[in-house]
Design goal:
Layout: H1 8-31, H2 38-45, H3 49-53, H4 59-83, H5 90-107, H6 109-116, H7 132-153, H8 168-177, H9 183-204, H10 215-229
Helix pairs in contact: 1-2, 4-5, 4-6, 4-7, 5-6, 5-7, 5-9, 5-10, 7-8, 7-9, 9-10
Length: about 240
Amino acid sequence: MGVPVLSRRERLRAETAAEIKAVALRLMSEGGPDAISLRAIAREMGMTAGAIYGYYDTRDTLVSALIKDVYTSLVDAVEAARDVLPADDPAGRILAWGQALREWALVNPEGFRLIYGDPVPGYQEPEGGAAAEAAHRACAGLTGLVAAAWPQAVIRQSGEYDWTDFDPILVGLVREEFPELPPAAVALALRVWGRMHGLVALEIYGHLRSQVKDPARIYLDELRDLTRGLGLDEKSTTRA
């Protein structure tokens, strides 16, 4: 089946909707989450407030659309980087996922802050979340990385966990997609997530570059230390 051809009216509407979201992210980068407002965006674009409401009826609708787009873009990037490497190279896939996360965040700092940092004051997300599919993919992807490493990593783990230690929604996802994993592997997945995101967040918020000349080197060393701690051998050539 071919790709449907949009009419000129539909193309213009899609372009305007995309421009609205781009302006919203720029305003956020300049003035923080408080700066996202439909009236401010309308002024920036030379539109009337009434016209912009024809695209997004509330600010929360716009913010939800932004979160969905941004989160999906991030997950697309990390999945694509991971899938370049074969399934029998768990260390390489972890390194690829982590580096793609950092590279995406550096190109999209406002997006990173929107989904992982600064909350938009007063924003009420829709039931089920603004980006449920992307969040599911991110969780499943990261858990999958840990599942592949678990046979080597299990002997290096300490602490006992029960399914009741975790959010029921997270438990449901893991037990459906990775039924062989124990609760301790979920704890490990959360710790891996924290190590990947920690240095990225410090860099995005400006706390790292004032301390070190080469944040990329520090981050790669952190990822390699992470994989060694999981008992994995690095097979692939990783970008420095």
